């Protein structure tokens, strides 16, 4: 209080005691919070620099969550590719097993040349082709009134022991006629008879020849191969199912969906992971239809497509593996960067608890000494009373 007069010694000791109390208050705050900079008033430069570092660390932490999701998405895609690879390998095994079947049907050596699907009527006479099994009775087919190859195919299919089918021709709009004999037939002859002889086979793209065939089991087809065809198609369906199920958190890289991973707070550093179509159609694998599994050379075509699919899967697995390596590297880097930022912020604001504890002990001692000195100064002022 300004209206109370204190001696110089008492005032000096009082100021010292007040300074000590103020320092003890700051030290107690540091010990309580663990920080030497608790507000901008303590140290503006350190306070705002530390706040900036902490904010960036938090931003990276939020991005790290999306990076973690990207890692899981890639792992899900990789698991899907591994499973699909096993299915393709199983499909290969089914195709090879069919090809090695003891009751295999062998395509005849006689396949027509490429001709127009629509037949041009003969100029004159009756147009007949004759199929004669070795040691058997000749079978005549009148094609005079037939207008397309499909009618010829159906007519041959109706004959017990024979099978026919149309395959793509050499040019668009053309077909080839393939005739196969079975039911124990060792070979058969194809001839051209009738008043219009010389025109029927020509119209079909055939030449008079003898072809060999093996026996069919029933209905001109191998039952074993038919079962393996069904198994093959079931495997293709499973490929499609796995493709649909290989997503994570709404992202499916196997369904041709891209994934963008952002690595820094302003989005200038990122990686776009390209999705692919790994369904059966995406791998150019088609369900087997008709008599494809009845013929070894057709199975060779299927096996070739399976080889291509496997190569595609292995290549894509390698690509996803490289992407995963990049994302995991950035994931580790982000974690390290966050730790560096937090450490930097801590170095600017955190207090040394050991040092602050020692400071508190020193201040307590100083406070006791200041109190004693103040008491002694007061006693000196009181000595004047002894004069009265």
Automatic annotation (TrEMBL):
Record keywords: Bacterial flagellum, Secreted
Segments passing through the bilayer: none
GO molecular function, one term: structural molecule activity
Highest taxon of the lineage: Bacteria
Domain Flagellin N-terminal: 15-104
Free-text function comment from the UniProt entry: Flagellin is the subunit protein which polymerizes to form the filaments of bacterial flagella.
This protein's name: Flagellin
Organism: OCS116 cluster bacterium
């Amino acid at each position: 209080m300004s209206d109370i007069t204190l001696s110089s010694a008492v005032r000096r000791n009082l100021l010292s005691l007040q300074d000590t109390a103020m320092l003890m208050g700051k030290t107690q705050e540091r010990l309580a919070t663990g920080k030497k900079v608790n507000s901008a008033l303590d140290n503006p430069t350190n306070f705002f620099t530390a706040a900036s570092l902490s904010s960036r660390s938090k931003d990276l932490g939020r991005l790290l969550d999306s990076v973690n999701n990207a890692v899981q998405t890639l792992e899900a895609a990789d698991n899907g590719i591994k499973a699909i690879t096993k299915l393709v390998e199983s499909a290969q095994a089914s195709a090879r097993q069919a090809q090695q079947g003891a009751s295999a049907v062998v395509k005849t050596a006689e396949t027509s040349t490429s001709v127009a699907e629509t037949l041009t009527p003969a100029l004159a006479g009756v147009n007949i082709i004759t199929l004669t099994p070795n040691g058997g009775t000749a079978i005549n087919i009148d094609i005079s009134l037939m207008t397309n190859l499909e009618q010829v195919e159906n007519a041959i299919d109706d004959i017990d022991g024979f099978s026919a089918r149309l395959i793509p021709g050499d040019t668009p709009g053309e077909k080839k006629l393939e005739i196969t004999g079975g039911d124990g037939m060792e070979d058969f002859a194809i001839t051209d008879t009738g008043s219009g002889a010389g025109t029927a086979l020509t119209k079909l793209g055939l030449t008079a020849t003898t072809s060999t065939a093996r026996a069919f089991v029933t209905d001109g087809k191998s039952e074993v191969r038919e079962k393996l065809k069904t198994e093959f198609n079931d495997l293709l369906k499973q490929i499609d199912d796995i493709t649909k199920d290989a997503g994570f958190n709404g992202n499916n890289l196997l369904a041709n969906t891209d994934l963008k991973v952002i690595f820094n707070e302003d989005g200038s550093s990122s990686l776009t992971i390209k999705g692919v179509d790994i369904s059966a159609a995406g791998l150019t694998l088609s369900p087997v239809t008709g008599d494809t599994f009845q013929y070894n050379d057709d199975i060779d075509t299927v096996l070739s497509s399976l080889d291509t699919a496997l190569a595609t899967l292995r290549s894509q697995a390698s690509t996803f593996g490289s992407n995963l390596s990049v994302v995991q590297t950035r994931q580790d880097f982000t974690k390290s960067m966050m730790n560096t930022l937090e450490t930097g912020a801590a170095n600017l604001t955190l207090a040394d608890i050991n040092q602050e504890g020692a400071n508190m002990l020193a201040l307590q001692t100083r406070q006791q000494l200041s109190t004693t000195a103040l008491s002694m100064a007061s006693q000196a002022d009181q000595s004047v009373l002894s004069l009265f």
